């Protein structure tokens, strides 16, 4: 993934090494999967390449915990990212999922049977909303203020 984003930016390994303050061998080792780059180096790559979704890809690939929590995302044009997020939120509301959440959790637990099936469906829909929100955050054409990753 590191090489893919570097190449997409039209940057050589030599130039990447210079911009990241590391050796060419280090960049090559990261790209070959011999070593995992530290988070601070990946944050610099996100700015240098520029590849904002690289941070998400890196976290998902470098820790099993993150892979289970953070959805896979792609960088979308701003209009598409907005449309996807609004669509997912609208569908959640049209399916009365907020009401379902209140009903399921009213006794403080998720019971066996229909409630657990509905709970799983709600969580899947929420994961889609989270994915859409992250894609909006990193949308192409979004000129958000720079922030720490």
Task: Flag low-confidence runs.
Answer: 145-149
Q: How are helices and strands ordered from N to C?
A: HHHHHHHHH
Average per-residue pLDDT, rounded, comes to 90
Structural class: mainly alpha
Strand and helix map with partners:
Layout: H1 2-8, H2 13-20, H3 24-32, H4 39-48, H5 54-62, H6 64-69, H7 78-94, H8 97-105, H9 114-137
Helix pairs in contact: 2-3, 4-5, 7-9, 8-9
Describe the structure in your own words.
The longest helix has 24 residues. The protein is built from 9 helices and no strands. It folds into 2 domains: 68 residues, 434 Repressor (Amino-terminal Domain) (Orthogonal Bundle), CATH 1.10.260; 60 residues. α7 runs antiparallel to α9. The C terminus is likely disordered. It has 149 residues and is mostly helical.
Quick structural summary:
The chain is mainly alpha-helical. Helices cover 66% and strands 0% of the residues. It is elongated and about 60 Å long.
Key features of this structure:
disordered C terminus, 9 helices, 434 Repressor (Amino-terminal Domain), mainly alpha, 66% helix, elongated, 2 domains, 149 residues
